[in-house]
Amino acid sequence: MDCLFCNIIEGKIPSQKVYENEFVYAFRDINPMAPVHVLIVPKTHLACADEINADNSACVAKIFEAIPVIAKAEGLTNGYRVINNCGEDGCQTIKHLHFHLLGGRKLPETMA
Ligand code: AMP
Ligand code: ZN
Prior knowledge:
By secondary structure, the protein is of the alpha+beta class. 20% of the residues lie in helices and 21% in strands. Strand 1 (17-20) and strand 2 form a beta hairpin.
């Protein structure tokens, strides 16, 4: 399996790292949609949110523990948005579970 985000986590493909711990890797989105646009991924490969279950959900908790730490480091003192796209209808393009952290300006109220 050749997964872009697994390759980024392993350092085989360069990224702008903003945070890392034993379970989580976070880096800047290559095509930012806001002044701060960070992707947060579990180090263990899961294709998408639809694969989360009771046996593997701890990695999601680790991601959500990292989010306030990253948000603080990025200066997001006035709030932010966390997004996960899942599958075809969710317009997920990279098949390694990831959460978008967006902020640094007032974001649109609606996301059609
Ligand atoms: P999604 O549509 O939720 O699958 O989002 C995938 C995101 O990955 C998009 O926002 C892309 O801009 C971003 N992306 C794709 N390739 C890279 C890369 N090599 N480094 C950083 N971000 C990337
Ligand atoms: Zn992967």
